[in-house]
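Lab manual, section 2.4: Encoding a predicted structure.

Procedure: take the sequence of the chain (133 residues), apply the prediction step described in section 2.3, and record the output as structure tokens. A sample record is shown.
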Amino acid sequence: MQHRGNKASDHEARLRAAGEKFPEEDIEPKVLRQELEIKDRFRKGPLKKFAAKVDTLFALLKDYVNGRYLEVPYWVVGATAVALLYVFLPGDAIPDFIPLIGYIDDAAVMASCLAMIDTELESYITWSAGEVE
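Recorded output:
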């Protein structure tokens, strides 16, 4: 990844590194089993704009774990898991209970994740549309 010297690229680099290190065996117990609770965080408030994409991210994780869709670099899967967990876990950089700013870091992490996996996510969406037909 080329360093662009801005905060977005720094976030993306850290998220990608965390994704590369995220244990594959933790996807099911730490992310997929928390799906309803994680999705609930995106159903209201400032994170609502990400709700539709979060549904797609969970579908990608499930298809990867079940061996149905493996045409994706693992860092994408890991970065997706890390981003979803970051929003869900209470110990993030800015506590969510702080009015007006509590969700800024969560939104930044999700926006960074979606920006860096955009091409791979679009490939998955195309693949999954063909699976439904």
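Check your result against the sample. The first helix runs from residue 7 to 21.
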